[in-house]
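User: For documentation purposes, I need each entry recorded in a consistent format: the amino acid sequence on its own, followed directly by the corresponding structure tokens. There are two entries in this batch. Please keep commentary to a minimum and don't merge the entries.

Assistant: Recorded as requested. Entry 1:
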Amino acid sequence: MVLKFAINWFKMNSAWIKEFPDQERRHVVFYDQLINNTRNELEEVMRFIGFPFNDGVMKCTLANSEGPFKRQKENFNMPFNNKSMAYMKIVKEKIIKMLKHKTLSNA
């Protein structure tokens, strides 16, 4: 099941890259980077959409990071095994490579 979702995720991101080949018109946020490096990722998103970023924005984000939409940690079971994690890493790296190219001809 994870592999099927990885393929669909790849197809969706590939379609977006094709639709917006100009790197100035797209910004991709990877969940793991947002979680592991929240400040830098949020700053990049704010810069992309043309909003100022400061400590107040960061404090507001952290103060409001919980909500009814958030998955309860105690109920979460990691669906990935080592094989599917390795596959996801390959798929993510391919998307990152595509994002760095101005065109998809080399992807």
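Entry 2:
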Amino acid sequence: MSGYPETIRIGFMDYNLKFVPKGLRNPIDGEHCSHTQSMRVVADTTGQYRASVVLHEVIHGCFYTSGLRDDGKLTEESVAESLSHALCGVIRDNPDLVKVLQKDLRG
């Protein structure tokens, strides 16, 4: 869809990115599953909102591959540190994703 890559590398995992029709029982616009290494985004999202949904799912993947767990002991600093390292890898490893995100964010 609109130039997005089919695969996004996050840490040691390669996720499949699929654009799907909005389900009648599913009110969300995106989902991430580490067990199936997949991300699904509703196909009729557009532009800046689509970029935001894709990036939201990428951040879920970063959270998972960084080993972060919501154990009640997370601090803002520990989350920022882990996610910044993971996002640097995503940007480095996925230049096609970065290009299409920039295009969508420009509107």
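Summary note for entry 2:
The chain has one domain: 7-106.
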